[in-house]
Design goal:
alpha+beta; globular; 131 residues; 22% strand; three-stranded antiparallel sheet; 5 helices
Length: 131
């Protein structure tokens, strides 16, 4: 599955309204019968945790974002995993977009390590008990 780029509305808003930072969103839909606990693990692996791949890629040594987040929604007829990135003022949106796409492609070509999976299971379990 290839990420599809759509013109971000935030970029247009950013030109016309001071103080608004552009944001990127990359979403993946899946059929409701495709939901499993693995989707929760995927959300944690790419989510807003300092140990996640998305956080390390965009907020690590060369920060491109002030905020990263992964959101999982399961509705009555469809599911959606969305990745949100709030861009830092000093970064070109194009550069941040390329890094976001590289992280997603990297998940396909380089599966999570055993250590990453153990960590994601612990985080997901803590979140479920908290809810």
């Amino acid at each position: 599955m290839e990420p599809v780029r759509r013109p971000p509305l935030a970029r247009a808003c950013h030109r016309h309204q001071d103080g608004l930072r552009p944001e990127l969103c990359l979403g993946f839909g899946f059929p409701i019968d495709g939901y499993s606990p693995a989707m929760d693990l995927l959300r944690v692996l790419v989510g807003n945790y300092p140990s996640s791949r998305l956080w390390r890629a965009l907020r690590g040594d060369d920060p491109a974002a002030y905020m990263v987040d992964a959101d999982l929604r399961v509705m009555s007829d469809v599911g959606r995993l969305s990745l949100y990135v709030g861009l830092a003022d000093v970064v070109e949106p194009e550069r941040a977009w390329r890094r976001l796409v590289d992280v997603v492609r990297g998940l396909c070509s380089r599966p999570p390590t055993d250590g990453e999976l153990r960590w994601a299971r612990r985080v997901a379990r803590l979140e479920m008990t908290r809810r």
